[in-house]
Please model this.
Amino acid sequence: MNSPAPIDIRIRRLPHGEGLPLPAYATEHAAGMDIVAAEDVLIGPGDRHAVATGFAIAIPVGYEVQVRPRSGLALKHGITCLNTPGTIDADYRGEVKVILANLGREPFQVTRGERIAQIVPAAVTQARFAEVAELDDTVRGEGGFGSTGR
Model:
């Protein structure tokens, strides 16, 4: 099976990102590229912080970049990304920051250069809404949260 052709994303390293690795895939078939912190910060239990990455990107029109947690940080330390997946829009040109939250019981030290999240480019489909008086019927109907479970 052939993979889709990669897209080109321009990246600008910011002064506080000097010396840090650029986003990169850890393995040949990884879906996400690891990104690292450009600052040291202590995140207490229940706290959150927008961690600097030291870079800005220009995403092609028709795409977004999603920011996602790293499973190892989540399992070992209770560290996750809020607003997950976070969306970076194609017209945003500011610094990429990662909103980390500490759901663990101990303070967590983020160290400059540490892998803190992953980013995944994704195609975007825009929609148009058509207002109607009635919607078609389905078996589920208006059943909401938990309505399809046992």
Summary: DSSP finds one helix and eleven strands in the chain.
